[in-house]
């Protein structure tokens, strides 16, 4: 590695880009991938390319890494390089274009952001969709086929998949000497006869996706006439070829990669189709008995019979991988089995996977435990345990299943990846090591284990929310390709500090298998910075709200004085003192204070008391619309005149609706409307203007009604003298002035002395 490249890679590590993790994540990915760095001014430089990119470009990693994008793709235009710079500098998330490299190979490159400014990923395909148009001829297809290291196949879109074209490399791969021979073989058999039996159904599922989505991608094994299998990465798209619907399939030969993955884990004993050990346990006595054991050196740890509990401890200590040991001791426990097993038709069973030692290495094993539930007390409870080696299948399955998940995690810089198996209630951690992708069982997903984890690792203030969010029975499962995000304060152990962490729950779909994956990342610095910014913003908002509140209080005060002045003018017009309005407000306030003590269900706080008190000034504002000959008449009004007088409630309500709202609204019309319209209604329904009964009358209007009647009785009017305060009190309590609510009368009785004091205060002020 040259010194310039070493310097660039060191700077990448300083910038927070984990190159080792990227290399592990993309090394065995059949999709060609490259990582480049640019500062937006200089041309992009290759930092890493995976083997698939080497094959596609025709250049080795040694020749690519450290070279500039311009040097490799000499035919690229400045516009195309600008797209790359846009992604690298964060101006956009992704860009796609096609270009012609120095070897004449057409490539379609998709640049995507790595969330670190200056770095960009690049996924490559051999041919763009535009080249698969109806204008293609066989010569064009042959030229395209030469660019693909696995071959090119064009078939009709439906069964029996008649061959339109097949590149020489592909038909020779399956053992035919010519295209005609291959076509004849397909007519006699089927394209599916060249596919490994285990891959046929997944391929059929993918073909159904091709019909629905017009494209597909899968990895499968193709069998040659010699019986040998070759791993291919297959990408297909629907297209139109001379007016006929066809499926254009581009294949990449990834056999070398897949052989490299599996060669290091080749099984010493062929246990694919059989168990290497099986035994049963008497659940009452705790004694196990050997049923069947293959004659291989790695099965000798199971003696013909023995104590089951002691064997579990010895087995876990000597044979189970340390990361799986504690988990598997719980799994193999008979009590845990009875508690967690799935019950179907009288059978208890579950299947678990773990790593155990074979010689000097660990391989994946699957244990199945099952028991028929005893129907009688005499029936023996027998648990059957069987073991089989699934290592090779597991590695291949995990490579295919978790590559997309792991690539997603690397791309978005997540620190850890966990799979939530809600069916078996197990939480796995997905890791990438020298042996490839694998997953470790971390926790049983029970409410008890979730709570234990929260007590140790989650901040006390976040604990209840964490337990609720990850309760195994109610966890929120997102829609496909959607995600749910949670944030908590977490600590690795009891001695460390709490730091903000993000938990992102996302659902993937892989070959019909739904995966619920949890991505975890430390967001402490970003979160605390955001909180500081939010705190500053909230402080600024609070200051602005305080300034607005001061202005509102001033405005309310101005409106209140205006309303009081307008109401007083009405009183002056009726030859009464303007002090009537102020006295009504004082009486109303005292009645409301009494109601707070007597009737707490009214929820009268200081704000409501202030609002109703201020609105009481509007009670007679409608008298402005009553003619002088009626309003100022010193004698008793006629029936017709009284009907006109009664209209002041309706007029007042209409006026109140048009006054800007300066009080808290009881409803959309406000307290002013209620008081002006209904303060002459009476509890027995004999009031006006609507004849409301009982509590149909708004509470605010009932309060002001008593205050208004009391002030009218104790004040000299053009048509009467003033009554004494005692006489006025008696007349109201005895119902001589109309029926009032018993609750209002209790309030009135409680504030009698306060009313007398208010009346006296105003009389004293008038004399001075």
Q: Report the strand count.
A: 23
Largest sheet: 7 strands, antiparallel
Helix content: 40-55%
Which structural class fits the helix and strand makeup?
alpha+beta
- What general form does the structure show? elongated
Widest sheet, order of strands: 13-12-11-17-16-15-14
| Strand residues, percent | 15-25%
What is the arithmetic mean of pLDDT? 76
Low-confidence stretches: 127-136, 260-273, 292-300, 662-669
Quickly count the helices: 28
Over all CA atoms, what is the radius of gyration?
43 Å
Q: Measure the end-to-end span.
A: 105 Å
Provide an overview of this structure.
This protein is an alpha+beta fold and 768 residues long. The termini are far apart. Residues 127-136, 260-273, 292-300 and 662-669 have low confidence and may be disordered.
Short description:
This protein is of the alpha+beta class and 768 residues long. The chain has 28 helices and 23 strands.
What's the structural blueprint in terms of helices and strands?
Blueprint: H1 3-14, H2 19-26, E1 33-37, E2 45-49, H3 51-57, H4 61-64, H5 69-72, H6 78-88, E3 94-100, E4 106-113, E5 119-125, H7 138-145, E6 151-156, E7 163-166, H8 168-173, H9 179-188, H10 197-213, E8 215-223, E9 229-241, E10 244-253, H11 255-263, E11 277-282, E12 287-293, E13 305-307, H12 308-318, H13 322-332, H14 334-340, E14 342-344, E15 347-358, E16 361-372, E17 382-389, H15 391-411, E18 416-421, E19 426-433, E20 436-444, H16 447-457, H17 460-469, E21 483-490, E22 499-510, E23 513-522, H18 524-573, H19 579-598, H20 606-615, H21 628-631, H22 639-646, H23 648-658, H24 671-678, H25 699-713, H26 725-733, H27 742-750, H28 752-767
Antiparallel strand pairs: 1-2, 1-5, 3-4, 4-5, 6-7, 6-10, 8-9, 9-10, 11-12, 11-17, 12-13, 14-15, 15-16, 16-17, 18-19, 18-23, 19-20, 21-22, 22-23
Helix pairs in contact: 2-15, 12-13, 16-17, 18-19, 19-20, 19-25, 19-27, 19-28, 20-24, 23-24, 24-25, 25-26
């Amino acid at each position: 590695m040259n010194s310039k490249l070493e310097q660039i890679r060191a700077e990448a590590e300083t910038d927070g880009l984990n190159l080792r993790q990227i290399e592990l994540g993309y090394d065995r990915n059949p999709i060609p991938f490259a990582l480049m760095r640019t500062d937006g001014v200089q041309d992009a430089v290759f930092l890493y390319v995976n083997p698939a990119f080497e094959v596609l470009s025709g250049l080795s990693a040694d020749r690519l890494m450290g070279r500039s994008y311009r040097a490799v793709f000499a035919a690229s235009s400045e516009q195309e390089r600008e797209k790359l710079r846009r992604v690298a500098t964060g101006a956009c998330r992704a860009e796609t274009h096609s270009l012609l490299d120095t070897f004449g190979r057409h490539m379609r490159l998709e640049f995507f952001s790595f969330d670190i400014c200056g770095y960009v990923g690049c996924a490559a395909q051999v041919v763009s969709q535009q080249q698969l148009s109806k204008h293609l001829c066989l010569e064009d297809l042959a030229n395209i086929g030469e660019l693909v290291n696995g071959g090119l196949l064009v078939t009709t879109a439906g069964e029996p998949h008649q061959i339109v074209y097949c590149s020489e490399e592909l038909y020779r791969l399956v053992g035919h000497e010519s295209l005609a021979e291959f076509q004849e073989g397909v007519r006699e058999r089927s394209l599916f006869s060249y596919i490994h039996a285990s891959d046929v159904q997944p391929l059929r599922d993918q073909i159904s996706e091709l019909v629905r989505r017009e494209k597909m991608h899968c990895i499968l094994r193709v069998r040659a006439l010699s019986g040998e299998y070759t791993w291919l990465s297959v990408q297909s798209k629907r297209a139109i070829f001379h007016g006929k619907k066809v499926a254009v399939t581009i294949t990449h030969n990834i056999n070398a990669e897949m052989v490299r993955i599996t060669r290091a884990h080749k099984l010493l004993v062929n246990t694919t189709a059989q168990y290497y050990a099986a035994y049963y346990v008497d659940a009452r006595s705790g004694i196990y008995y050997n049923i069947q054991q293959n004659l291989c050196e790695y099965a000798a740890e199971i003696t013909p019979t023995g104590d089951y509990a002691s064997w579990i401890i010895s087995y876990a200590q000597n044979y189970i991988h340390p990361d799986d040991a504690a988990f598997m001791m719980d799994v193999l426990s008979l009590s845990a089995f009875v508690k967690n097993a799935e019950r179907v038709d009288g059978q208890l069973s579950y299947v678990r996977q773990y790593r155990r030692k074979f010689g000097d290495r660990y391989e994946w094993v699957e244990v199945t435990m099952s028991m028929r539930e005893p129907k009688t007390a005499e029936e023996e409870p027998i648990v059957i345990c069987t073991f089989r080696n699934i290592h090779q299948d597991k590695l291949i399955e995990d490579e295919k299943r978790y590559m997309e998940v792991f690539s997603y995690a690397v791309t978005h810089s997540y620190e850890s990846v966990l799979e939530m198996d809600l069916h078996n209630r197990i939480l796995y951690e997905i890791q990438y090591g020298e042996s490839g992708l694998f997953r470790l069982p971390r926790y049983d997903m029970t409410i008890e284990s979730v709570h234990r984890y929260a007590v140790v690792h989650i901040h006390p203030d976040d604990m209840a929310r964490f337990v609720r969010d990850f309760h195994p029975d109610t966890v929120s499962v997102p829609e496909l390709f959607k995600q749910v995000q949670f944030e908590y304060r977490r600590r690795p152990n009891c001695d460390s500090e709490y730091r903000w962490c993000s938990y992102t729950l996302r659902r993937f779909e892989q070959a019909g298998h739904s995966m619920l994956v949890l991505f975890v990342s430390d967001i402490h610095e970003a979160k605390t910075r955001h909180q500081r910014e939010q705190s500053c913003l909230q402080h600024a908002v609070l200051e602005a709200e305080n300034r607005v509140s001061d202005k509102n209080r001033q405005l309310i005060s101005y409106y209140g004085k205006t309303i009081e002045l307008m109401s007083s003018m009405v009183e002056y017009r009726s030859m009464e003192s303007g002090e009537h309005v102020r006295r009504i407000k004082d009486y109303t306030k005292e009645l409301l204070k009494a109601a707070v003590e007597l009737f707490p269900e009214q929820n009268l706080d200081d704000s409501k008391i202030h609002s109703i008190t201020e609105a009481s000034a509007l009670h007679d504002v409608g008298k402005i619309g009553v003619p002088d000959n009626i309003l100022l008449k010193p004698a008793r009004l006629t029936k017709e005149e009284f009907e006109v007088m009664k209209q002041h409630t309706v007029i007042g309500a209409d006026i109140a609706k048009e006054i800007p709202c300066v009080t808290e609204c009881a409803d959309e019309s406000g307290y002013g409307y209620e008081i002006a319209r209904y303060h002459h209604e009476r509890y027995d329904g004999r009031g006006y203007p609507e004849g409301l009964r009982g509590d149909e009358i708004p509470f605010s209007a009932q309060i002001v009604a008593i205050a208004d009647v009391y002030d009218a009785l104790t004040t000299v009017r053009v048509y009467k003298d003033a009554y004494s305060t005692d006489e006025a009190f008696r007349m109201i309590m005895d119902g001589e002035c109309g029926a009032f609510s018993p609750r209002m009368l209790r309030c009135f009785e409680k504030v009698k002395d306060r009313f007398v004091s208010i009346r006296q205060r105003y009389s004293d002020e008038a004399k001075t």
